[in-house]
């Protein structure tokens, strides 16, 4: 089955700097890669996703890149703000399979 | 707003007790999931259900059971709770049309003494 590794486990950044979280996956059949953000006391919420027919996707200050050959994908947050502080999870699956395999999560702390 | 709700939000129980965690959704989604979250381990799938008559084990189903009472309700039971089931539990839903986009409830924090 699919195995997703996520790094780093914690990330501290200065407000205004960029943050990058990287994930690798094992199953070459995986073709859908979402990212979830979990704020304190809440459930994870989808923030951006990418399919394997696209190499990069942007939504305002966040972007995701995918390298299918190397089987890794990354989340980029630019101009970080205090409200970006949260746990971020990557996930991978084959569309239609109906289940997500999550990475272990990255605790992002944005310091003023 | 269409939502996913979980009850209780917090629960303390003793080893050997039977407890039930409940999940309700007003999104009209057919698919429902139960996850367990432990620090450093991400979200692990316990059980999932693609419709009322379809129940499937996830990667860590031992010690847990589920009941899909209706399209909107999916309950998770611990028949005899043990301390290593102390964790944060999340329910999630998705629709047949959006499939892998999952919507999570707020979670239940469970402590087994």
Please, how many helices of chain A? 0
Secondary-structure class of chain B: mainly beta
**What's the overall average pLDDT of chain A, rounded?**
94
Helical content of chain B (DSSP H or I, runs of 4+): under 10%
Taking pLDDT < 50 over at least 5 consecutive residues as the criterion, the unreliable ranges of chain B are: none
Distance between the termini of chain B: 36 Å
**Roughly what is the average pLDDT of chain B, rounded to an integer?**
93
Q: What general form of chain B does the structure show?
A: globular
Biggest pleated sheet of chain B: 7 strands, mixed
Structure overview:
- The complex is a heterodimer of chains A (112) and B (113).
- Chain A is mostly beta strands and 112 residues long.
- In chain A, 0% of the residues lie in helices and 54% in strands.
- Chain A is built from no helices and eleven strands.
- Chain A has strands at 4-7, 10-14, 19-25, 32-38, 45-51, 56-59, 62-67, 72-77, 86-92, 101-102, 106-111.
- In chain A, strands 2, 4, 5, 9, 10 and 11 form a six-stranded mixed beta sheet that branches.
- In chain A, a hairpin with an 8-residue loop joins strand 9 (86-92) and strand 10 (101-102).
- Chain A starts with a strand and ends with a strand.
- The mean pLDDT of chain A is 94.
- Chain B is mainly beta and 113 residues long.
- Chain B has strands spanning 4-7, 10-13, 19-25, 31-38, 42-51, 54-57, 64-70, 73-78, 87-94, 103-104, 108-112.
- In chain B, the strands form two sheets. In chain B, strands 2, 4, 5, 6, 9, 10 and 11 form a seven-stranded mixed beta sheet that branches.
- Chain B is globular and about 40 Å long.
- Chain A binds chain B through residues 6, 9, 32, 34, 36, 41-46, 49, 89, 93, 95-100, 102-105, and chain B through 4, 31, 33, 40-45, 48, 50, 58, 90, 92, 94, 99-107.
